[in-house]
Amino acid sequence: MRVAEVTVRRPQGREVDCDAKEVSIFCVYAKEEAPPKCTEAVSWMLFTTVETRSFEEACTIIEWYSTRWIIEILFRVLKSGCRAEERQLETAERLKRCLAVDVIVAWRILYLTTTGRQLPDLPCTAVFEEHEWKGVWAFVNRTTKVPEKPPSLQVIVRLIGGLGGHLGRKGDGQPGAMTLWRGLQRVPDIAGMWLLCRGSSS
Fold first, then answer.
1. Domains in the chain: how many in total?
2. Looking at the structure, do residues 99 and 190 belong to the same domain, yes or no?
3. Residues 33, 103: one domain?
4. Residue 56 exposure: Cα atoms within 13 Å on the Cβ side
5. Residue 109 near residue 81, CB atoms below 8 Å
6. How far apart are alpha carbons 122 and 92 in whole angstroms?
7. Is residue 65 within 8 Å of residue 46, measured between CB atoms?
8. What's the 3-state SS for 68-137?
9. What is the CATH number of the domain that holds 159?
10. Can you give the residue range of the structural domain that contains 24?
């Protein structure tokens, strides 16, 4: 890992909202010297305005950057799933309130996606209500018999992914955020029908 402070000159011929002709930034270079077999070594050159001089500070910058993909997935769900950019509201205050709800929805989908992969053996009841997972199980498997013991989170995630279009073939991997988003939209209706058919005590 290497760290250096560098000076970057203002681009020529471009209008910028800054009078300074140059700006100082910090470069953090991280390279994986012994990557796992059959994988490409990590090689990152990061630029930041956050003062970075020590090894510990460089590790913090790398840790921040490593969350970039999670953040991108969150905003992808917001834009493509919740269609936040297409909201046609009259005031900024209404837009803020709508986005507050959309962020909660996007966070839940992201949480389900990551938890289903990191803790696949976790009981599904850690995330879903009893009538939700039972309804999904019965609907997908076309049966009224459900397991007495709640299945794992991974099992239910894959069933919901199937509702969203995930084919579940060997090479398909785990359902992605957008697939789960589509599948989760069907869960309330399926769970509601389960309660209606079996009674609210089931």
1. 2
2. yes
3. no
4. 0
5. yes
6. 41
7. yes
8. HHHHHHHHHHHHHHCCHHHCCCCCHHHHHHHHHHHHHHHHHHHHHHHHHHHCCCCEHHHCCCHHHHHHHH
9. 1.10.740.10
10. 2-8+20-66
95 and 143 both lie in a single domain: yes
Query: Whole-model pTM above 0.85?
Result: no
pLDDT string in tens for the chain (202-residue length)? 999 999 988 777 666 666 667 889 999 999 999 889 888 998 999 999 999 999 999 999 999 998 888 888 888 888 877 777 777 777 888 888 888 888 888 888 888 888 888 899 999 999 999 999 999 999 999 998 999 999 999 999 999 999 999 988 877 888 888 888 889 999 999 999 999 887 654 4
* Contacts with 7 (C-beta within 8 Å, 6 or more apart), sequence order: 22, 23, 24
For tokens 């599904």, the residue is: 124
